[in-house]
Amino acid sequence: MADIYEAITKDHDKARDLMKQIMDTTNRAAKKREELFETFKLDMWSHNKIEEALFYEPLRGAKETRGDAMEAVNEHHVAGGLLEELDVMPKDSEAWIGKFTVLKELLEHHMEEEENEIFSDARKVIAKDRAEELGDKFQSRKRVVVPALTPEA
Ligand SMILES: [Fe+2]
Ligand SMILES: [Fe+2]
């Protein structure tokens, strides 16, 4: 069983791996890049939304973590905008990979901040058994949302 911190970190590791795979594609392998990006986009978007609903919601309510929560949700918003822009751009260009690099750096920094700073503050606000319930919820919501949003082949 994973608590909310483990569930989020596991998801971050998956995102880091997908971003690396996308960076390794060439402009000529646009189809591969497109497929990987489609997976990454749904995964990251749902990660952020579920994280907001389950993890940042209690943090927004506590005065010691309110600032962290507001900053993080704003970063999700910026990442969401970049995901949308990347979604409609031709994938076989330097411009695309340039914009993707900006998103990758933003998200890497964001995830590190969550893991290294926000988690320790959150532990003061979210009780241990609540953190375990939230971890289960996070994983089960993620398991439902990603397939629900995936287009049929
Ligand atoms: Fe986040
Ligand atoms: Fe996250």
TrEMBL record:
Domain Hemerythrin-like: 4-120
One Pfam family per UniProt: Hemerythrin
Record InterPro entries: Hemerythrin-like (IPR012312)
Domain of life: Bacteria
Protein name (Swiss-Prot/TrEMBL): Hemerythrin domain-containing protein
Source organism: Marinicauda pacifica
